[in-house]
């Protein structure tokens, strides 16, 4: 039966996938298009999924060969080979760093592909978790062999790198490309993340103050007990934050007026999923396993690299390791800033810092407790002061809700000061104990 405008019922049915398929595109708020929940998720992308199954080797080409950064992949096996053939730990460490860099980027890619099928809410959680998978794997391996200071300093370095270097580069490139326009972002989300970061600073500061004022009830045990209790509280706070962000107050994170229209118009240019659901899961497992293997050789070579390069372990842990772990975030934040999507850039940089400080660090404390390792939140006075000042600087930069290239330049210069400070910093925790 035909309608007034001459379209048949079949033609109306064919319009449904076109309108609902936009819900699977990136850039729109997760809950913007969930009103059509009666339409199965598979319907909009059914024609895409058929195309994805044409070639069995397509996913290998897409994940391994297509990305230019994968030219660094052979350095991983080369580092393992050198580990067994030579004792040049400096080269082993350097080649391991190069080998892990594309793996970190491909982990982020596989997670984004999986988010097409899992939906926006689960996809957001997957992006947050696997975005920091490299740091978590390196930290757990280092914990297992008792390198607690490497864990503390590498996680601290990830926070500093995201907040100063990644965000600074995003602000700078976005400001240069869009000059003289002043770019803006949603202040409410930035203030929320700044509050969580200050809470993390509180959790890290008190054990350090307790240690250096020598006011523990039980010497050495009180700060460890406080760290474990505070870690549990921080995990509860982070879980509450996720619920608040994704379910309770999702309107707080909606795009500002005007950005919604631009986002909808740009969604037609967004790419469709390039690999299937099970291929994405398989690649996540393969990449995670390979990162785990390579992380072992990387951590084992840290001390040898420090000796051969005459470089402090603190500098390697705080500066070099996080730059590799944040490679994917760095590229993504700059790309979205150039596209004038600062809200996403901010979510990548500050959101990752929030997750590391409120989830990964307390998670490592709990895991260390289970392993019998005395992992605590006492990051020592120098590291704690560095984190505190960094959070304050970034919070002041975000309070106006605007950015420009000068703000980005200041953040990058602050990171250079931090890097120079750790280059001349001598870690004396063992001497104090």
Give the C-alpha Rg: 23 Å
The tally of beta strands, per DSSP, is 2
CATH topology value: A middle domain of Talin 1
Given helix and strand content, the structural type is mainly alpha
Order of helices and strands: HHHHHHHHEHHHHHHHHHEHH
Order of the strands making up the biggest sheet: 1-2
Strand content range: under 5%
Biased composition (Basic and acidic residues): 1-10
Membrane topology: Multi-pass membrane protein
Protein name: Vacuolar cation/proton exchanger
Family: Belongs to the Ca(2+):cation antiporter (CaCA) (TC 2.A.19) family. Cation/proton exchanger (CAX) subfamily.
Structural features, described:
Residues 1-10 have a biased composition (Basic and acidic residues). With 433 residues, the protein is mainly α. It has a single domain (67-432), classed as Up-down Bundle (A middle domain of Talin 1). Helices cover 72% and strands 1% of the residues. It has 19 helices and 2 strands. Strands 1-2 form a two-stranded antiparallel ribbon. Helix 5 (89-118) packs parallel to helix 14 (313-325), helix 8 (148-177) packs parallel to helix 17 (381-398) and helix 10 runs antiparallel to helix 16. The longest helix has 30 residues, at 89-118. It is globular.
């Amino acid at each position: 039966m035909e309608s007034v405008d001459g379209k048949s019922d079949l033609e109306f049915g064919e319009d449904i996938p076109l309108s609902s398929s936009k819900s699977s595109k990136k850039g729109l708020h997760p809950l913007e298009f969930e009103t059509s929940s009666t339409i199965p998720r598979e319907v909009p992308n059914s024609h895409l999924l058929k195309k994805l199954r044409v070639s069995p080797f397509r996913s290998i080409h897409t994940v391994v060969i297509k990305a230019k950064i994968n030219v660094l992949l052979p350095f991983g096996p080369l580092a393992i080979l050198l580990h067994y053939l030579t004792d040049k730990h400096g080269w082993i460490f350097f080649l391991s760093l190069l080998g892990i860099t594309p793996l970190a980027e491909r982990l982020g890619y596989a997670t984004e592909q999986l988010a097409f099928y899992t939906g926006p809410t689960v996809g957001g959680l997957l992006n947050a978790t696997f975005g920091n998978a490299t740091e978590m794997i390196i930290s757990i391996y280092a914990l297992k062999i008792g390198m607690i200071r490497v864990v503390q300093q590498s996680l601290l370095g990830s926070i500093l790198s995201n907040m100063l270097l990644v965000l600074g580069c995003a602000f700078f490139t976005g400001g240069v490309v869009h000059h003289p326009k002043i770019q803006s972002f949603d202040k409410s989300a930035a203030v929320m993340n700044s509050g969580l970061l200050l809470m993390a600073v509180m959790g890290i500061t008190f054990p350090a103050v307790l240690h250096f004022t020598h006011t523990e009830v039980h010497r050495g045990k009180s700060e460890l007990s406080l760290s474990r209790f505070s870690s549990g509280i921080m995990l509860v706070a982070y879980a509450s934050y996720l619920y608040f962000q994704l379910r309770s107050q999702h309107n707080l994170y909606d795009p500002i007026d005007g950005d919604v229209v631009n986002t909808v118009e740009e969604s037609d240019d967004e790419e469709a999923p390039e690999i299937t659901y099970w291929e994405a899961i398989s690649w996540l497992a393969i990449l995670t396993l390979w990162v785990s293997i390579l992380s072992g050789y990387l951590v084992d070579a840290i001390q040898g690299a420090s000796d051969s390069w005459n470089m402090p372990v603190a500098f390697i842990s705080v500066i070099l390791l996080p730059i590799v772990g944040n490679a994917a975030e760095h590229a993504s934040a700059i790309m979205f800033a150039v596209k004038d999507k600062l809200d996403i850039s901010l979510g990548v940089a500050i959101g990752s810092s929030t997750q590391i400080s409120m989830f990964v660090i307390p998670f490592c404390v709990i895991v260390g407790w289970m392993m019998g390792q005395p992992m605590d939140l006492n990051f020592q006075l120098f590291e704690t002061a560095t984190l505190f000042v960094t959070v304050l600087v970034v919070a002041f930069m975000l309070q106006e809700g605007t950015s420009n290239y000068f703000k980005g330049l200041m953040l990058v210069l602050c990171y250079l000061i931090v890097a120079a400070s750790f280059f001349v910093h001598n870690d004396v925790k063992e001497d104090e104990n």
